[in-house]
Specification:
It is built from two helices and 13 strands; from the N terminus they run E-H-E-E-E-E-E-E-E-E-E-E-E-E-H. The strands form two sheets. Strands 1, 4, 5, 6, 8, 11 and 13 form a seven-stranded antiparallel beta sheet that branches. By secondary structure, the protein is mostly beta strands. Strand 2 and strand 3 form a beta hairpin. It folds into two domains: about 210 residues, no CATH class; about 30 residues.
Amino acid sequence: MVQLGAALLRHSRKTLPAALFSAVVGLSSSAAQAIPLTDLLDSDPAVTITAGDLLFSDWRLIANDSGTDLSQIDVTAVTDGGFGSGLKFEDTGNVLVAEMPIIDPPALALTTSDFFDITFQYTVTLLDLGQELVAASLELLEFAIDGTGNVDIDETVERTEPFSQPVAGLNVFAIGIPISVEMELLDSESFEAQQRIVVTTNLFGIVEGPGDLASLDSFEQLFATIPEPASLGLFSAGLVGLAALGRLGRRRREDAAGR
């Protein structure tokens, strides 16, 4: 059997067209504290994360069909991403793993597959009313694949106003044998400007043969913002006003010098 063997791959982030983000506000890097996913999901009192001008709240567990220990998944705010602010998810306890041991003889194996399957949801709210959410980026950062293993992250972005409706869908995946399928480690999509969105994320991995392995070690979720049109208009009007004052002052100085 051909082995891809614990292939840890990292790809540079791609962005949406540069013209769309020419007005994106710069974000400074800052140290962020990791929070276990279990501390966020269905917490009482509610636990939230702030990354730049984004508030991540209303965390809910939809399904954990594999019984994965979610306390071993850390969530960290990201404020220095080239795409925008967001979150990094990291498996610190080796729990997002599907693995089949080699049993000899094979007839003694109780199962021929293993998997993990988790779905959770959270709300993203812009704290700066002068900005608007316009795009999302999902990147599979680190993973391991042996044999037939594969990992997949599937995501739906929904708007909340004026009514709930999907506005974007993102998917990244890594696959082992057969290797004719091209891996998709980064996906990004723009959508109609929003102040608040709901994100539903499914983490899935599976193996179907002895000695196979699939693990999802880390991934990153970022969101891009641009100035809200009214704010951008006021900013532009201010620049025009300053330019007019500059011209007026220059004419007065020229008139005074000519007397």
